[in-house]
Design goal:
two-stranded antiparallel ribbon, two-stranded antiparallel sheet
Amino acid sequence: MLARQDVRPSNGAELGEELKCVLHQQDLLGLRAASLAAQFARTDEYDEQGCASPIDWIRFNCHVTSVTAADLITVGENLGRMPGSTRALADGGIGFAHIKAMARTADTLETKFKEAPLLEKARENSPGKFHYLCQHYRHAADSEKYAAEQAEQVQQRKLKLSTWIDGSLLISGVLDPEAGAALRTALEPLARRSGAHDDRDRERRLADALVDLSVHALDSGLIPQQGSQRTHLQVTTSLETLLALPGAPAADMEFSLPISSKTVERLACDCSVTRILLGSDSMVIDVGRAKRTISGPARKALNARDRGCTWPACERPASWTSGHHVKHWFYGGTNDPPNLTLLCYRHHWMVHEGNWQIVRGDDGRMLTIPPTVTFGLPRGPA
């Protein structure tokens, strides 16, 4: 007789059935492993072998993560309270992922746990949806404990910011459910694709959305201040850097490593600028008062005319754009309406740092020109 692994399914339906069978066997083995993990945790073997906890021993010796080890012990310790769920898993009605959510709920609620109503929900829903429903069940069974746990999560909020050697900002942290939902509510609309031309992956779009949110925090009222100004970034630069002359140093920006002249050019398009002019010996030779590059009335007129980002097919509204000088004021450009246009953060970056060009056509519409690609000359005969 042929071994099972030697029988190769010939079509998708057979492959699917084979996959279901294999994963069901894996679920059954998961139950057995959970029982063994709980029994092992009740011994002193982990301590005798120098491990800090049963979880630590299982993680190291069974080649699993700490979360997996903890889940196995929790399931094993609660198997006696979930006989119906155990039978349902054996019959293929639910999976091991359902059992894990059930066990965590039982572990939390202790004597208030009732298996029957949850098992019915487990049979009807995917593991992810069942986990969600378990949270409702926990709140219904013990709302005070549920609230206390969420209050503790708020106390555990953490955000770590560190600068990498190339100046990139590394972000890591933990937010409680409410704070996480608030952040995602703010980011998700900004992280949508801006049009059919938007080829950024989701992670890049979320990162750009976070920058959008930060740059426009003052305009959106997230940071209360007098007047309507965008976040003030302090940049110190030389005239040579502003003009991008050969040999000029980079510009200095607070909370960052030095930035390029292209970035300075973009920031100066539509921001609050304080002129600090340095001489060749780095001494401050002139300090001017802050001024709005595009004044309030001019900005209102620009918003009314352009209504949003003028990059073709972009749908960003005017409130999430910056004013861009088609001919930059560094080089003699004016604040007259024909020389101004609205661009969202992404497309403003593309024009300055990304080396795209945007020009106004004879009909008044903005036209974009991609960066010039220069190919090397073919190698001549040796």
